[in-house]
Amino acid sequence: MSRPKLAVHKFSSCDGCQLALLNLGETLLQLPGLVDIVHFAEAGPMDEDEPVAVALVEGSINTEHDLERIQRIRRNSDYLVSLGACATSGGLQALRNMADANAWEAAIYARPEVLDSLPTATAVSDHVKVDLALWGCPVNSRQLLGALRDLLFGVAPREERRPLCMECKRSGAVCTLVTGEATCMGPVTLAGCGAICPRKGRACYACYGPAEQVNAESLGRRFEGFGLLPEDVARRFHFIHSGAPAFQAAGKHFRGGK
To answer: By mean pLDDT, which of 59-63, 157-161, 198-202 is the weakest?
Structure first.
């Protein structure tokens, strides 16, 4: 009996989410017993056009070539999973959507007309159907392995819906927002990271994107009470996941609709 085929594809990104797969260590060595990895440039195999059961996609769509590739990958995949901030919301690259990208290119490149850039940096789901989105900057190995196991055994993966504050409470972390007046994004951010930053006494940066319900108005007013200007509050939302609709709207609100 042949094994299901798996492909890992990279677009505009830092490779951090692919490293989450490589960081599985000894567990990764068991993966070839379950799947046939046909494309994973970071690890060696390269056959981008091979039809597969599962395609893992890291990175945002930034060029015409990206657009052509992601459509081809979608056609060749039974299941397509977007990995991490860049693939799920456009990531840090999406910050250019709020600026004049053409002016930037003209200031940097001698011949900007030869560039293949799209007007915006966008999530994979803006262009093709995504069967499962794994948020995170980067995703973690546990999260990725659980999703792969579910898909390979025909189980619908459970999508995270809890806010990060739930992870803080369960781990016994002291609330940085309440006790330290830190500009923590935990109340509006998806769980999944294990509350790494708050457990170290640092505020959450919203690496895992917006939670199911985002009360941005309340959290933003709290930040203003700490002394932040509205522009600074907007930056908290317009950071890693500025392209996520909930954070995009919140940032625009505190910028006065700009």
So the answer is: 157-161
The parent domain of residue 110 ranges over 5-152
Return the amino acid letter for 24: L
**CA-CA-CA-CA dihedral for 80, 84, 89, 90, to nearest 10:** -100
171 vs 28 pLDDT, higher one: 171
- Residue 86 neighbours by CB distance under 10 Å: 33
Give just the sign of the alpha carbon dihedral 112, 113, 114, 118.
positive
According to the model, what pLDDT value does residue 34 have?
80
Amino acid 143: pLDDT: 85
User: Do residue 208 and residue 135 come from a single domain?
Assistant: no
Cβ burial of 178 (10 Å; 0-12, 13-18, 19+) is exposed
Six-digit token string for 251: 């940032």
User: Mean of the pLDDT values across residues 176-182?
Assistant: 91
In eight-state DSSP terms, residue 207 is T
Using alpha carbons, list the distances in angstroms from residue 170 to 75, 140, 166, 176, 194. Answer: 42, 19, 6, 15, 10
Neighbours of 211 (CB within 10 A): 24
Q: What pLDDT digit, counting tens, does each position of 74-87 carry?
A: 999 999 999 999 99
CATH of the domain at 40: 3.40.50.700
Tell me, yes or no, whether 159 lies in a domain.
Answer: no
